[in-house]
Amino acid sequence: MSTAYVVVTVLAALMTGFSAGTFIFRAPWIVRSLTAYGVPESWLPWLGTAKAAGAVGLLAGLAVPVVGVLAGIGLVLYFAGAVVTVVRARSYAHVPMPLLYAAPVVASLALRADI
User: Quick check: 87 pLDDT over 80?
Assistant: First the structure.
């Protein structure tokens, strides 16, 4: 297991965990953005829980590789859905945000493939 893989995976898990917390605890800027995108506020805890599970799965993947790969794939699909949601709402200036969170997850998967 390379140092780069561990560092990038932990960074991805921390970023995703932070993002999950903003959903679960209903940060005002998140609630405003998501309601503007047409996402019901009642979905916030579920979306946050999905991200939190992905973050935990990435960290568990350091010990059990298949769990990390599955969590990474799930998070990539989640963030792809977030991009689609933002584009459908025509908030094109916000498209980089889910991509910013997806980037370390993709990098973690890429580094995992090299091991």
Answer: yes
